[in-house]
Amino acid sequence: MAALREPYVSYPLAGKNGERLIRVLKILTKANERRLRCSLKVIDLNKAPVYDCLSYTWSEPLYHELSAGYPLDIRTTTGDLDHEIECDGKMIPITENLEDALLQFSETGFVSNSVEGRQENREGLIWIDAICINQKDEAEKDVQIAMMDEVYTKARRVIAWLGRCDEHVHPALEIIKRIKSIPPEQRQVTITDFECPEYRSLFGNPPISSQQWNDYAAFIQRAWFNRVWIIQEAFLANHIDVLCGPHVLSWKDDLWDVAKFLRDSKLGTSLAVQVDGTAHPDRKSTTYINNSLNNQYQLEAMKEDAAKKPLSLERLLVYGRYFQAGQAQDYVYGLLGIWKSSNKTKKLPPDMSIDQSLKKESDFVARVFTKYSWVSIRNTKDLNILSLVDDPSTRAQQHLHSWVPDYSVGFHVHPLAGVPRPDPEKQRWNASKGLPPFEVPTSNSEKLSVRGILFDVINDTATTYSGVIDQHDINSLLLLLRYPGEKYPTGCTPVEALWRTLIKDTFCEKPAGDQARDTFQYLIAGHVGDLEDASQGFDENANTEEMSTLLEKTESTIGQLGNKYKNDTAIPDMEAIHGIIQKVGSLNPASDEKKKLDRDFDDITESFRVAYSCRRLFRTKQNYLGIAAESLEKGDAVWVLSGAAVPLVLRLAKDGGWKLVGEAYVHGVMNGEVVKLVGKELQKIDLV
C-alpha cells in the first residue's frame, strides 16, 4: 500500500460542559476494496450513543509453539505501526493485526450487524484504542485510558478479534462443536487422562487425536485470551462476539461452555500437560504449569464473583497474574476499571489514582506494585497479600522489596492462603489465631512493619518437586524422618506428619483423612517403581549407575523406617511396594478395582503436585516438618505474624530487617497452636 502523504491530526477532545467525549470510527471501505478508508466522529458518552468496541492485540495474535515448522517457517506479525489507514483523507499508522480486522469488517459489514436485545448500530460506529485515542498526546491518553471502563460499559457490544485463520482453526472449531454436543447428564464426569474409560466413553467414536487437541490448545492460547487488558474489556462488556477470520463464535455458548467442561471434568489439566510436553519436548525438568487454557473460565468466574459482592483489589491482582501485558504496570492499571465498576464508583480514591509522573523513574514498576500492595493491605486489614509472594528465584521485576508480590509473573505455586482468598467459613488456616490483632499501617513505606513470633529455625532441607519427579529422589524426602525419637512434637508419628505435610494436609480439595493416608502408599510405590525403571535404563535422561546407587539407598531408608515405625503403613516396606506394583500390572484395566486404584493414585499424585510444586520440605530444630519456597536455606526462620493466615519463612537481612522467602505449611502450627507453645508476646520487625 503506497503511503499517504499527510498524517492525520487529531483535534483535542475538550468538553466545556461536562461532556464525556470520545472518538469513534466509521469504516468506509467496501467489500473487496483493499484500501482501508474511514472517518472519525466525536461523540458524547453522556448522550447514550450507539457504538461497538474492538478488543484485539497490537502484536502477533496467533500461538505458534504447536505449529508445524515452528519457529523457522512461521510468519509472525509485530506490534509496529507499519500499515496505514486513510482517515478523512489523511494517514493514520496501524498494526497489521488491526488492518486484518478492519478488512474483515469491511468485507462483511459486521459492525452494523444486529445484536439481540440491543439498539441497532446503523452508522457502524466502532471504538478502537489505537485510532480513537491520539497516541502522541500523553495528556489525552491519561484521560481516555481512565475512561476506558466507561467506554466498554456503554458500548452496544465488544467485538473480540482473535486474528487471521491458521491451520489450527478448523480442527479447534470441530472440537468446540463436539464438546457442545455432549448432553448435560453426561458432563458430570471426572477425566483423569486421555486413556481412562470416561474419556473413551465420551470421545472414542470417532476418537479425537492428540494433534486435534493441540489444535484446540493453539486456538485457545491465541494472544487475545492472555492479554491482561481483556479482563477489563470482557468483564465490562454487555455482549461479546468473538471473531477469528470470518468465523463468529459466542463467548458464552461456545468458548465459556467448553472451558467450563474442561475445568469441571479435569480434562483441562491433562490437556495442559500434553500441550506443555508437545511445545517443550526437550524440557528436562518438571515445571508448574500456569494453565492459560483456563483463562476463559477465570473471566467468567470473576463475573460471577462480582455479581455476589464488590471485587477487592487483592482478588483482581490475583486474577491479573493469569494473563500477560506488554508493560508490567498494566498488571495493576489494567484492572482498576473493573474495580471502579464492581465497587460502583466513577472515580478512583486518591490512594488508588494513577501517577504517570513516575514513569521515567528506573524503579517505576516497583513503586506501582508497592503502592497497590499497601492499598490492598489497608483494604483487607490483614497480611494475606504476603501469600501472593512467589519464590524469590521466579521474580522478574527489579527493585521489588521482598514482601511485595511480583504481579507480572504467573503463579508458580498454589498459595496456601487461597487464590483467590476463600470465604471466612471455608478458610483452612489461621496460624495467628489468638495473637494480638493486626495493626493496619497508616502510611506507605518501603519497609513493612509487622509484629509476630519467631517460632523456630530451619535445620534441614530436602529435594524439590523436580528432584522427586525428574531425578527420582524420593529418598531425600524420607531421610527427614530420621528423628531422635518416635514421636512428632504434636504427639502423632513422624510418618503421619510427613504425609500430611507433603500434601499440605489436603486431599481432593478437602482436609486429609483416612483415605489420604491409605492412598499415600501408592504415591511412594509409584515413585519407587519409577526409580527402579530408571535404574534399569527405561529413563533415557537418567544415569543408570547413579539410579542404581540411589535405589539401594532408598531401599535401605525404607527398611530402617519399617523397623522404626512398624505400625504405620503410610510408607510401605519394599515387599508391600512390589506387591502394589505387581497388582497394578495384573488387574484387568476394565475392572472396578483397577479403576478405583487408578483414581486413588491420580488423586494422591495431584494432591502432592499441588502442595509440593516449587516448594521444598524442611525440618526445624524442634523437629517440626514443613514445606515452603524452594529458595529456603538452613538457618532461615519460621515466623507467625499477626494478621497472617499461614506461617512465613523469613531471612535476616544485612540491615537488621527481614526478607520474605515465602509462605509455609508447618504441621502442627497452622491454627493458633503457636500461642500455647510460645505465648502471645510479639516482636516488632521490618520486612524489607
UniProtKB/TrEMBL annotation:
What domain of life?
A: Eukaryota
Its taxonomic path starts at: Eukaryota, Fungi, Dikarya, Ascomycota, Pezizomycotina
List the protein's name: Related to heterokaryon incompatibility protein (Het-6OR allele)
- Please report the stretch or stretches of sequence annotated as the Heterokaryon incompatibility domain: 51-233
Q: Which organism is it from?
A: Phialocephala subalpina
A Pfam family per the record: Het-6_barrel
The signal peptide here is none
Q: Which InterPro entries match?
A: HET, HetReg/Transcr_Mod
